[in-house]
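Incident review: delayed structure delivery

Summary: a single-chain prediction request sat in the queue longer than the usual turnaround. Root cause was a stuck worker, restarted by the on-call engineer. No data loss occurred. The affected request and its eventual output are reproduced below so the record is complete for anyone auditing the incident later.

Affected input:
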Amino acid sequence: MTAATIHGYTEDRDAVLKRLRRIEGQVRGVERMVEENRYCIDVVTQVTAIQAALDKVALELLSDHAAHCVAGAEGDRQEQRTEELMAAVKRLLRRG
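Output delivered after worker restart:
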């Protein structure tokens, strides 16, 4: 990101990074659970929690993108950004 580049999540960047670091810690915890041969369902429960946390981050980023990058775009660029947004939503929904 250059100094002149502002993305929709820029204002919330610290919060997004904090959330991602928390998720990273959860992933390390799941790794330890597997190393310790913990009960399968307990591991899957934690994986599901991680997926939900990542979905929340993705939805926040998409919301910021819609509000800043799509709504703030001009003319043809707005159409392109809308298509990008919808493609990202489709990818998020197809997961799993």
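Verification: The CA atoms of residues 70 and 81 lie 5 Å apart.
Action items: add queue-age alerting; document worker restart procedure.
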